[in-house]
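Everyone, study these two lines:
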Amino acid sequence: MRVHPKSIKKMKNHLRELTVRGNKWSNPEREEKLRRYTSGWINYYRYADMKKLMEDTDEWLRHRIRAVYWRQWKRVRTRYKIFLALHLPEWQVHKMANCRKGTWRAAEMLNTVLTKAIIVDKLGYPSMTAHYLKIRVNY
């Protein structure tokens, strides 16, 4: 069984709405809404073979989450403190905290700081791939 492309598009649009950088949700609230939506969507399509789709969507979703955090850390001083707390070398802290790239590009740079393990384990955001692999039903 395959997931219809329109369903995938609707899912990604809903995930976009849940990870808009400008909304005023707290991070735990955003995490809870993402968890509820993704688990419901995956439970509905648990008979489909969509491991690759979940991996790609997971990467894209984590990138959007990094963009949300970058947007929240507005000031250079805030970024500097956070990067120092994450035990980065001084040169890398200075380089990343003073980055003047756009939000999406800066979020790409945050891959080294906000890794998959930190986003999923410490911050509590859902991993679509892990949930799918746990509940999938393949014949």
Observations:
- Residues 47 and 139 are 8 Å apart (CA to CA).
- The chain is about 70% helix and 0% strand.
- The helical segments are 5-18, 27-44, 51-72, 76-85, 90-97, 103-109, 116-122, 128-135.
